[in-house]
Amino acid sequence: MTSEPSLLKTLCGLSLSTKTMSAGMLLEVWSPSLGKVILVPSFQPRFTSMVEILDAKTREKLCFLDKVEPQATIAEIKNLFTKSHPQWYPARQSLRLDPKGKSLKDEDVLQKLPVGTTATLYFRDLGAQISWVTVFLTEYAGPLFIYLLFYFRVPFIYGHRYDFTSSRHTVVHLACICHSFHYVKRLLETLFVHRFSHGTMPLRNIFKNCTYYWGFAAWMAYYINHPLYTPPTYGAQQVKLALAIFVICQLGNFSIHMALRDLRPAGSKTRKIPYPTKNPFTWLFLLVSCPNYTYEVGSWIGFAIMTQCLPVALFSLVGFTQMTIWAKGKHRSYLKEFRDYPPLRMPIIPFLL
Ligand SMILES: NC(=O)c1ccc[n+]([C@@H]2O[C@H](COP(=O)([O-])OP(=O)(O)OC[C@H]3O[C@@H](n4cnc5c(N)ncnc54)[C@H](OP(=O)(O)O)[C@@H]3O)[C@@H](O)[C@H]2O)c1
């Protein structure tokens, strides 16, 4: 050991050595030829790994991190990368072992990855990000508000003489209560129930999702609250049956969300196999991987029967298609992640799909 400081150079001026520095031991100087040079006293613990970050599309070298601690997580590496490329904040970064492979998780640890002493990671820019909570609140507040505009028949929708008039059909009022209840429930669940593992999603998704939710809400509301709307063929019987389906499915959906929440301790990203609890609504976990989607589809089918309105049926169909795709993906992940995953389960529809 000498008392001379050793030179720790990084192409993008970054090193995880800062993590183990004692206060005041890091000296930084700037050299135009070397980039930022960090002077590290020689008594520092030994470092073993190096990380180079290449652009996944062009293979251009974006960053070289010299002597990274093997215990460093991907989240820490992302933070270091951000220091040299501030435009790519951590939530925007996808780091992979293969240019076309899956993104590594933030909690993945460098020494547990199949890499040598120089790890090559491929970077992809995920685009501007927005928080999930903002996305959900925007997505769900929109339909709630839009539907009510039609329900109260504000001017410029149905013609002047219908402004602020009210429908004479009970089912129209009931439909408004159900629709509003559904979205208030979702807003409250987003704020107080769900424990998301991802903080953000790409900003562009919000435009797509809002067009979908807001557009369908306006289309459905226009017909249901139309002054010429005709109530369902089988009258009160049909409405009562539909209401029962809707309420049961809303309770079921809420119960599953609570069960999923209980799987994950606050602040963690743990994923576990969900199992039925004492609550009978959760027993659907015996047969499907995503019963919350099953119940969600059921709610919309109930709403379609209640209103006997074609746009509602189409919304249910599109929602069902989308949720089936997601449910299949989640089901596959469960099978891959958990060897003891219950074999009887299907993604979304018991015994079928
Ligand atoms: N009408 C429609 O078109 C439509 C479409 C989609 C959703 N929705 C509604 O929105 C609700 C939420 O949708 P979503 O896609 O976010 O549902 P989801 O993927 O089932 O997730 C619900 C919550 O549970 C967590 N979670 C899921 N599986 C988990 C596990 N095995 N262990 C621990 N936590 C787990 C999720 O965390 P992560 O962040 O880790 O995923 C998330 O916070 C749905 O249930 C449905 O009611 C409606």
Can you describe this structure in just a few lines?
This protein is of the alpha+beta class and 353 residues long.
Describe the structure.
Residues 200-353 form the 3-oxo-5-alpha-steroid 4-dehydrogenase C-terminal domain. Residues 51-125 form the TECR-like N-terminal domain. It is found in: Endoplasmic reticulum membrane. The protein is an alpha+beta fold and 353 residues long. The protein has 2 domains: 63-127, Ubiquitin-like (UB roll) (Roll), CATH 3.10.20; 130-337, no CATH class. The protein is 42% helix and 14% strand. It is built from 7 helices and 9 strands; from the N terminus they run βββββαβββααβαααα. It has a 4-stranded mixed β-sheet with strand order 5-4-7-6, with helices on one face. The chain has a 3-stranded antiparallel β-sheet with strand order 1-3-2, with no helix packed on it. Strands 8-9 form a two-stranded antiparallel ribbon. Strand 2 and strand 3 form a beta hairpin. The longest helix has 29 residues, at 235-263. Mean pLDDT is 86; it is low at 1-47. Bound molecules: NADP nicotinamide-adenine-dinucleotide phosphate. NADP nicotinamide-adenine-dinucleotide phosphate (NAP) binds at residues 194-198, 253, 260, 263-264, 271-272, 274, 290, 292-293, 296, 319, 322-323, 326. Residues 194-198, 253, 260, 263-264, 271-272, 274, 290, 292-293, 296, 319, 322-323, 326 line the site of NADP nicotinamide-adenine-dinucleotide phosphate.
Which features characterize this protein?
single chain, 353 residues, alpha+beta, Ubiquitin-like (UB roll), 2 domains, 4-stranded mixed beta sheet, 3-stranded antiparallel beta sheet, 9 strands, elongated, disordered N terminus, binds NADP nicotinamide-adenine-dinucleotide phosphate
